[in-house]
Amino acid sequence: MYLLIIFLPLFSSFVAGFSGRYLKIKGVGFFSVSCLLLAFIFSLIALYEIGFSNCNVYIKLLSWLDVEMLDACFGFCFDSLSICMCCLVTFISLLVHVYSTSYMSHDMHQPRFMSYLSLFTFFMLMLVTADNFLQLFLGWEGVGLCSYLLINFWFTRIQANKAAIKAMVVNRIGDFGLALGIFTIFGVFKSIDFAVIFSVAGYHNDKIISFLNFDCHCLTIICLLLLIGSMGKSAQLGLHTWLPDAMEGPTPVSALIHAATMVTAGVYLIIRCSPIYEQSSVALCVITYVGAATAFFAGTIGVVQNDLKKVIAYSTCSQLGYMIFSCGLSNYSISMFHLLNHAYFKALLFLSAGAIIHALSDEQDMRRMGGLVKVLPYSYVMTLIGSLALVGFPFLTGFYSKDSIIETAFSKYTFEGNFALWLGLISAAFTSFYSVRLIYLTFLNKSNGYKNYVVAAKDAPFVMSCVLTCLSFGSIFIGYFTKDLLIGIGTPFWNNSIYYLATNFSGIDAEFIPRSIKWLPFFVTIISGALAFIMYAKFKSHAYKMCEIAICYNVYNFFNRKWFVDKLYNKGFVNILLRMGYSSTYKTIDKGLIEFLGPKSISKSAMDAGQQLVLLQSGLLNQYTFCMFAAAILSLICLLYDALFSYFQINSYSILFLTTLFLYYKKL
Fold this sequence. Notes:
Layout: H1 2-18, H2 20-52, E1 57-67, E2 70-78, H3 80-103, H4 110-129, H5 133-151, H6 158-189, H7 194-200, E3 208-211, E4 214-217, H8 218-233, H9 242-245, H10 251-259, H11 262-272, H12 274-277, H13 281-302, H14 308-328, H15 332-359, H16 377-391, H17 397-410, H18 415-444, H19 451-456, H20 462-486, H21 507-510, H22 515-537, H23 540-546, H24 550-560, H25 565-597, H26 599-614, H27 621-639, H28 641-648, H29 652-667
Antiparallel strand pairs: 1-2, 3-4
């Protein structure tokens, strides 16, 4: 049963990919949905056995690499952490598959799309159930590959090509850090198995290694290298640029990437490696600063974006910042709780956006929408539920996890805790502002779209509506029903899958913080949302006039251009690296050394020799007579080879070398 959870999506991918033309579009959709449904049911059964019965399962499937001290197997670890991720991934992927059968019904390449989705799910399940770093890296690279294939699904669009390449290249930077981290782990622990590494991590707390000619704390170096990998996948500040551009793919892809698969992999890696991170206070501080800065950075950009999907994408980036800095404050269970909650309302927002875009003939600019509350009432309700859950409105799913993160940040009573607290509150204000702005511009504002699009717009079909309904229930109720199970003092659910030092635990202090701090996120959210509504409903013209002021225009342009990070990368790094690559590696190595010594040089020499041999066919009798005479002399020399060469004491290789050298200089 446990192996079926992982390999059913792989089987679905192969069948959809290689038998799509025989099963047709409906057959592929039915088969893929059936496989994911079975995987989800098995995940629920496993959740009962592992999460509630405390019966962890470890499976060693087969040996992969066994070289001296490196022993890597295809092994699977099913504990509370991994089975929660399995339930999440299979459930969201199941709903995305069902949604795609309707959303992509007009596309003749739907079997290929379903195959990619199932393969994406398989690699994510492989990542979260791995029991060693090498297998985790296999799943890590697999989700990167599938993201490239899915973002570039409509490969005839140049923007989709560019976005897919950008996602692949930026993630390679993070993957390089993760690979270095795995190498360092093997060098320190002489193993890549989770159980071995986590059990002895505390004994290497005082170990020093030489890194770049500096003596460094080995566990800090490992943690920072793993953090670079997490920053790439989870789109943290500096390696975030691929995430908004990934919106070029179909909307179901955006929902799957942002809700349950790729972006959650980085957070999962940090939580899984909590026994290592707890040994390095420096690494925890860095994680806190990176996460808090990302939450603030993405919030400021989301406020001024006009693309519907990009606003939701930057909200994902901001929420990932919350998860990351919660890990930096050693609140791994709350971070995991927010990850699970975030998946429901973020999938709901993206799929609701997909329904809106589908109804408006692929229009994504919110400035060309408006007045859709009467045209698309069901999509309006679903978007409203998802947005309220995102901002942390009381008693919805996001309220329980987001407020818990802010409360525990206050209870740390450290500089990094206060840094995360205030940036988290400011980010919450931005989140509320752009969520209300999205709802107003899309649904409540006066209609600014094309008349023929609005007249022809229809609400989500039955299949898509069923998916949105399921996600809406999760966005409303799942946080309330799971908060006491997943977070809080004394819960036994996580067992040994999450580890924290007693000195870093702040859960008890969070229960006794002032009531005003507990109410602060609520007031910030309400005030910011009300400000956004009043600004766009009553004072929109005044806001436009403010942008005519130089300083306001510069601030707006700075945020709208995404803090000029892309421009900085293009001017400061990409162009320099491209010039260096062209002048050094391409011209000197590829076109120079490799072509001179490689197959192209050999083929060119053979062609030149053939052209020289062709010249012998001159048609002149005297030349043919000379050739026959030379051949007769050569045959006589061969017959007298032993006697002649032994008499003159000449090596045959010397004769061959001298002959070749003579012909070469004659050619010159």
